[in-house]
Amino acid sequence: MNCPNVLAQGTCSDAGCLHKHNVLACEHCSLLFQTDGELKVHLTTDKHRNRASGYSAVLGCPICSSNHAGGESGWKLHVGTRRHRANAARQGVSPDIEPQGPEPSATAQFCDICQFLIPPADWNAHIKGNKHKNREMFTRYRSAIEEAETDKNGVSVSGRFDFEFVEPGAAATGVRNIATITTSIPSSRVRLLDARLASSQGAKLVVPAFSVAVEGPNRQLTVNKPVRLAIFLKQAYVGRYEDRLELVFRDDQLLKNFVITRTLKAIVANRAEHEAFRPQAPYVPRTRSHRLHIENSDVVPGERPPALDAIRYVTRLPRADIPGQLKTLLGSSQSRRSIMQNITKVFMPTTLDAKTYSRHFKHLLWIEEAKMEEDLERYDIANASLTKHNRYYYLSVPGLAEKRPSVLVGDVILVQERGATSRQWFEGHVHFVRQSEVGLVFHKKFSPSVQGRLFHVRFKLNRIPVRRQHEAMDTVFNEEHILFPVERHLVNRPARVALKLFNTSLSTNAPQLQAVASILKSPKGSPPFVIFGPPGTGKTITVIEAIRQVLAEVPGARILACAPSNSAVDILAARLGAGLTPSDLFRFYAPSRSKDQVPHQLLPYTCINDNGNFTVPILSRLKRYGVVLSTCVSASFAAGIGMQRGHFTHIFIDEAGQATEPETFVSIKMLADQSTNIILSGDPKQLGPIIRSPIARDLGLEVSYLERLMSMQAYDLNTSYGRGVIKLTKNFRSHNAILSFPNKQFYDNELVQSASPSTINRYINSPYLPAKKFPIVFHSVSGKDDREASSPSFFNIDEILQVKSYVQRLKGDRQFRTADSDIGIIAPYHAQCLKLRTALRSVADGVKVGSVEEFQGQERPVIIISTVRSSKEFVEYDLRHTLGFVANPRRFNVAVTRAQALLIIVGDPQVLSLDPLWRSFLNYIYLNGGWTGPDITWDANEIVDPTGGYDKKVRDAAAVDMNEFARLMEACTMAEVDDDLDANVDRPWRNVE
After folding, report:
1. From the record, what ranges are coiled-coil (predicted)?
2. Using CB atoms within 10 A as the burial measure, which of 253, 520, 680, 685 is most buried?
């Protein structure tokens, strides 16, 4: 552990020297961690458990002269074999022997560091490889750390190095602990040369939370006169702080230096508040256990709710069951990469064109359906209780109010009594859905007495939406000018049309007027027209005006207007309803929807049967409506009751970027003909559709029809403006400081601040702003990622308390008054949302807390974003599953463009700065004075490399900053762990009906 270089120069000249860094180690996996929390999370991973059990170790059998992988479990299998026992009997020894090290072999050499057998031909390549070098460095470093943390040469270091919880007020003033250095050797000639912190040795010096000073002039250790150290904590901001105290000693008798280290820790927070949100049970990863298949013959059918018969369809939906070979492949134990390669080779067409279109998307639908079915397993309930009232059996479903799982009227839930000896399950149809429970009706054979009995509950995927999409894909409608438009399909559209506007606010907005004119004057059978609407640019207003103009000016116009979600369709319906009567407009709702889920003002525009279920008018009446509205998937109802293809002259699809291509094409392939005009509106720079299957995402299901069109040459904004696409550019939402960064990053700096000054300047000069004219705050918090029990979703207590503090300040400010409805809080993880709601329940219960998906299309005067992540080891997880904000530009874009007047981000800059987009945004805030909390550790004036590589740069800087290197070592191993099982826990379920 001796390192004279560091004493002479302040920084070790040996790039391989690892003595001065604050790292915790996992011996089994040869991995380094900076905090106890990170190490504890690692200890729960499959990789660690396998290594700890000896899975990767090679053990030798002297009886059989053979080597065996698999560690302890592999050894047990070997000693139980007939061959091993026969060899033992032949040699007259007991077969139950202890394993030894690997047996020498002419075909392999054993690497002690990596615990693997390596063929001689590969040996040189192995020892030069990165994995071997990393483990070699770890082995050397582990030895150094163990030595450094051990008292030695008769010197002992004692004291309180973990400050534990420190109240923020006390931490801001400063807290002191005393450490004592003693020697037990009477003739000791040891003196303290230096007492310093590892944090002071990084490439960019920051003000550390801790400081250390030797009390008094004495540095010579004697038995009767110890050396005292004062360790100070002074930090004005909440969060978790760690450092390593390095004590360098000189033994003048031996003429040698040696080092003793101690880890300093502190949590700046109120203990009671902090502990109120801590995990109630440690996180234990869920193991993959495929559901046993239930044959239809094992299910006793339940009683269908009346809602399922509310509409009489003249066509029958196809079953569209997943092909057996595909289902087997998706359920195999192969790696995701292998499965995808086999799917691509066997099932997917080599090119996507009009002939292969349906086959391509049908297989993507099946792949997604298989993953949805797998994800439903998470919500299965063991040992559930049922209660009975009249004919209904009530089942309490955890997470129902948050659509986790999403349950609709008409869905099927299977139950089986615990301990049942038969394979029989009872099918319960959902007749109603309440806040936290559902009402089921079973077959009359189901026992009427359920008191005191427990049941296993399985949720069954509602296949109606996916079957509707398959039905659309099965049609022969494959018009090239709609599926794959090219330049020759485009038509010239008038630059200006004299319009008598229904909404006069458009009169001074040239892009909106151009969009309406282009749609109005498009010839029949034109290729799709796209309204590209960045945040706050009035996209929906433009769509509403275009619909009204088409109805007024195009003879015989009939319009079908769709959107992916009911909420988006309701916005269209409400705004159109302001100028249209119930005889002009029909809003279709799936019969599974209840009346209390529908805005009261829209009920006159619906059709309700005698049972109180939504239904449809007779076909002749339906044909007389000027506008029909439904979700994208439910649009097939019109064809299902006999509406002829081509009845609708125009099909509008709003928020088209949030729908999958098969969803978008339910209306088009079922109802359009060669003359139908298609209009899409949305923003491909914001969130796309929610796709649960990583394989389906990789194969393109996450790319919406809108995004695919805008990637084509025919829809290039520079050459097709006004003919195929219009970009809206006036932003009516945000202060220019909030708008500026996403404007530059995503919209070519073309957006123009056009919002009311009284709205966007509301918090200028407020006490929340470090820079009084710049309404963005980044509050730096060094927190900790936590997970609880069996939920893999992350939460961060330190950020929860910081967000709560901001809400309390906003609510208590009498000068800058803020109501609950003025504040929106965005967090990328479901667990964080739940904890935040709990924290705010007694403070501001009316504040909306939700995911990025829940805020798309919305705005608030104040948006607070909690980024949650504080461990770099999980950045790779986010990269692969695109759940958080890191490395996901669309989620970032939506999150930061919701605020009108004040944007507050609470997060860990050390994690966020690994992504070039976030690093650029943090630099933008920092250079404009919007930073608060601990300082950044990089140069904000340095040009950001858009290709990234900041994680590699941190690793490359390991010689001078081993802390960063250690925390990133786990990020490399995360890629080796199969996290797909729990990846979708934070991905919302959508109701597309």
Report:
1. none
2. 680
DSSP H/E element including 572? helix 566-577
As given in the structure block, the two tokens for residue 971 are 């990020």
Give residue 780's identity as a one-letter amino acid code. S
- How many CB atoms are closer than 10 A to CB 26? 21
> Could you write out the DSSP letters of every residue in 39-99?
HHHHTTSHHHHHHHTTTT-EEEETTTTEEEESHHHHHHHHHTSHHHHHHHHHHTS-S----
Domains of the chain: 18-147 (no CATH), 149-272 (2.60.40.2910), 298-465 (2.40.30.230), 475-728 (3.40.50.300), 736-948 (3.40.50.300)
Does residue 823 contact residue 847 with C-beta atoms inside 8 Å?
yes
Q: Residue 694: exposed, middle, or buried by beta-carbon count in 10 A (0-12, 13-18, 19+)?
A: buried
Contact 397, 407 (CB under 8 A): yes
Q: Which residues contact 527 (CB under 8 A, 6 or more apart)?
A: 481, 482, 485, 489, 490, 491, 678, 714, 724
Contacts of 628 (CB under 8 A, 6+ apart): 558, 559, 560, 561, 585, 586, 588, 622, 638, 648
Residue of 660, 656, 634, 624 whose CA lies nearest to 566: 634
* pLDDT confidence band for 281 (50 / 70 / 90): confident
Residue with tokens 């959508």: 990
- Cα separation, 91 vs 705, whole angstroms: 72
Q: Residue 70 corresponds to which amino acid?
A: G
Out of 206-220, 619-633, 931-945, the most confident range is 619-633
Task: Return the number of other C-beta atoms located less than 10 Å from residue 83's C-beta.
Answer: 11
User: Residue 855 to residues 543, 762, 895: CA-CA distances in angstroms?
Assistant: 20, 21, 8
pTM of the model: 0.83
Chain mean position to CA 379: 19
Q: What angle do CA 290, 294, 296 make, to 5 degrees?
A: 155
Token look-up 């939402």 returns 733
Report the alpha-carbon distance of residue 392 to residue 283 in Å, rounded: 37
What tens digit of pLDDT does each residue of 572-594 get? 999 999 999 999 999 999 999 99
Contacts 24+ apart (CB under 8 A), 915-920: 915/886, 915/887, 915/948, 915/950, 916/944, 916/945, 916/946, 916/947, 916/948, 916/950, 917/745, 917/887, 917/889, 917/892, 918/885, 918/886, 918/892, 919/944, 919/950, 920/741, 920/745, 920/944
User: Reduced to 3 states, what is the DSSP secondary structure of residue 601?
Assistant: helix
Do you find a cis peptide bond into 604, omega within 30 degrees of 0? no
How far is the C-alpha of 260 from the C-alpha of 250, rounded, in Å? 11
Measure the CA–CA gap between 558 and 646, rounded to whole angstroms: 10
Reply yes or no on whether the pLDDT at 794 is more than 70.
yes
- What tokens appear for 676 in the block? 């139908």
